[in-house]
Every structure is written in C-alpha cells, then in structure tokens.
Amino acid sequence: MATAIRVDRLSKEYQLGVLNRTTLYAEMQSWWARVRGKEDPNSQVEPGNAAHAVGGRFRALNDVSFEIQQGEAVGIIGRNGAGKSTLLKILSKITAPTSGRVLIKGRVASLLEVGTGFHLELTGRENVYLNGAILGMTRRDIAAKFDEIAAFSGVEAFLDTPVKRYSSGMKVRLAFAVAAHLEPEILIIDEVLAVGDAAFQKKCLNKMQDVGKGGRTVLFVSHNMPAVTRLCPRTVLLADGAVERDGPSPEVVHLYLQTAGGVAGSASREWADPATAPGDAVARLRAVQVQDRSGKIRSTVKIREAVALRMEFDVLAEGRVLVPNVHLYNEDGTCIFVAGDLHSEWRGRPRMPGRYLSTAWIPGDLLAEGLVVVHVALSELRPVLVHFHERDAVAFQVVDSLDGDSARGDFAGTLPGVVRPLLEWETEYRASIPA
To answer: Which terminal residue of the chain has fewer beta carbons within 10 Å of its beta carbon, N or C?
Structure first.
C-alpha cells in the first residue's frame, strides 16, 4: 500500500510575543530576517504548555514522526496545547515547520477553522468553484458535484449570498460539504464540527465513514473519543508536542483517558484504611473495580463486550440483610439505571461478619457510547438504611467501532439515548401492494 503522508522528525517553534501577519510588508520583514539569519518577527504563538517556552521561544512540535498509508483513517488526539492544530496546519501547508519534513501524495482538503479556504467577499456558489479549482478540479467536474454539495450543506437558499454574511454554522456546513464532496485524496478534519448542530454532525460522521471506505485518507482530530474509535482504526496520541502513542484506537484512547486525569481514568479504587473507608459501624467499602472477562481492569470497554463491576466490602455487624447496588450515570448526569443484588444466594439472608466481593455483570450491547460513572452503595430494605453510598466511585468509557455488529449497524453518527441494546427484529414480506 502506498504512503499518503510521511512526517519525518517534524518540529515547530514560535517566537513568543509576536503575531503572524499576511501583508506584503510583513512578508518582506520575514524575508529580510531569513536573509540575515535572524528570527522571523511575524511568527505566531499558540496557547500551550509553558514548559515548552525556552529562551523566548515556544516549541509546539518536537521531533514528530509517523507514516499514514493511502486509504487509512487515523485519529489525532491529545489535550489542549498538545500540538494537534499546529501539526494539521503544517500538513495543510498553512504554516511551515522549523525543522523536519512532510511528504504528501495526493490532493489535500482541510477543514481546520470556521471559514477556512473561503473568500468572504465571494458568494457561497463562487467559493465552491474556487475551492474546487484549488484542488485541481475542472469547472465541469465541480458542476457535476454542485447539486450534491448544496443539498448536503443545507444552505441552498443562501448560495448567492456573500460568505461574510453567513453564520459560523452555515460556514461549517458549506465548508465540510465542499471538502468531502470534491473528492480529495486526503481529507483533514479538525474539531470544527463541534460548531454544527447534532443532526449535521451525524451527517458529517456518516460522510467521513463513506470517504474512508472509498479508499481516501482521513485525518480526524477530535476530543470525542467515541467518534474517534468508531471512525479510525488507528490513533496517534500527542502529548507536549511529541508522539506519546501510535496504535489501535481502543488502546490509545484507553491510555489517553487514564492519563487525562479525573474520574474518566479511574477504573479502580481502594480504601486501605478501614477507619477512613466509606461506611459506618455496619459495613465499610474497601475496593471498587471495572474489569473485563479475563479479570483485567479496564477504563475503556468495547460496546459488544460484557463488563464487571466488582465491589469489595467488610461487614462488621451480625444479622443484617444487606443489598449491594450500583448506580450508573452518563457524562450529562442522567441516570442510566440502578441495580441491586436481589437474585444471589444472599437474597433475604443475614450476613455474618467478614469480607465480601460482589460482582455485577453488565452484558454487552446494552450501554450506549460515552463515559459511564459508577456509584456504589450498600443498603438494607426493611427498613431502608444506607450504610455507604460512594458517588463517582469509578468510571469507564464505552466505545464502538465499525469492525463488528452492534445496534449501530452501518450508521456512523452519534445515536441518542443512555442505553443502546441490540434487539431482535423480525420482518416478513406480507404481500405486494395492489395496483
């Protein structure tokens, strides 16, 4: 398979405290500085980690290397300031690297910022033809795609209006429609899709899936981990301007969520000191873990696979009928479900003092994609008494990919709902419709 993009020891530095300009005067300034071997006074500084600022210069990328083969869909993830936008600007030839080189084979269409590639004084129609010409397409080729672009964008009524009068959402709609339909060999998409509404984001994700299946190369930068794992078999994780991990998307996303901090990376917690562990004189919580079938702790689970929520606790008082229970919430704070241990051999039976391990198995193809936050509790029912209720005890990320069957089917967009069960369907042909 041919190489579409090769990045070889790429680095980019900015001089702190000056802005990028595009005037002829600024270009002459930059040229004269290069001739004299001086610093370019018109470099632009982007927000990032201050640790990279040394001697009045900021290093946004540091010795980055990787290859992308033709037809690959690759995700680029990382925290804000990791160097993602700088990398895409270099790949799109918007800015030049300080050192290293980039080899690109094929036409590149980029959607990095709202209105990227648009001439604001021209109409939407004129900009469609201008972008196509930049990509090397003939007027006839563009005209053949024009109606499809207009319908996809949803701004048909405003195609003869200057783009400067468009809202940011309208610009994104038209820009994505142009970039995706004019058949570039390489499509580069930044987080700009977040500007559009939910319905349009679904359309974009479906279109990106079609582009990838058509043998074209896709680079997708996003903070939406389910979208990354769904669309991209491979992901590159950037951290502090360097490649921290390059590999299968579920593994790289798992690493990112573990190192990103917060509850999203906490799939295991323990309370070593019983005196400070959650609980009371009846029971104390000692540990909570998210595990797969093999017993491995998982902060990221595939949507088709079962996941175990294990709760370890000490019973201190005799004669209590205790019910372990779990409360699952999504990242919006909506309750997914609450479930208690009402069917094990301990149902209705008083427990003797000692250490207990209760495991709740959540079957595959039940939860929807996204972050799942787990609360754990231990209760009595007659009367209702709660001996501990640890909120945000652990969390895990549910991801879906396109390499198997799930309730998603062939749809690549984001499906609503807190659960997504794989239901059994029966459809039969009854009769032809009478003429």
So the answer is: C
* Same domain (yes/no): 348, 289: yes
| pTM (2 d.p.) | 0.60
**How far apart, in Å, are the Cα atoms of 13 and each of 87, 121, 245, 338?**
12, 33, 22, 51
Q: Are 392 and 263 in contact (CB under 8 A)?
A: yes
List of the chain residues with pLDDT < 70 = 1, 15-29, 31, 33-56, 112-117, 191-199, 257-265, 332, 402-404, 412-414
Picking from 259, 283, 318, the residue at the C-terminal end of a domain is 259
Angle of CA points 244, 111, 144, to nearest 5° = 135
CATH of the domain at 76: 3.40.50.300
Measured CA to CA, the distance from residue 118 to residue 171 in angstroms comes to 9
Q: Rounded CA gap, 433 and 51, in Å?
A: 71
Q: How far apart are CA 363 and CA 421, in angstroms?
A: 10
- Beta partners for 187? 109, 218
Cβ-based neighbour number of residue 185 at 10 Å: 17
Query: What is the 8-class DSSP label of residue 215?
Result: T
Residue with tokens 């896709």, as numbered in its chain: 218
Q: Tens digits of per-residue pLDDT, 296-339?
A: 999 889 899 999 999 999 999 999 999 999 999 887 678 899 99
* Same domain assignment for residues 240 and 290: no
Are 151 and 206 in the same domain? yes
To the nearest 10 degrees (0 to 180), the angle between helices 139-153 and 124-134 is 130
Do 76 and 219 form a contact (C-beta atoms < 8 A)? yes
Q: Is residue 272 domain-shared with residue 255, that is, in the same domain?
A: no
DSSP track, 54-94:
ETTEEEEEEEEEEEEETT-EEEEE--TTSSHHHHHHHHTTS
Alpha-carbon distance of 55 to 53, in angstroms, equals 7
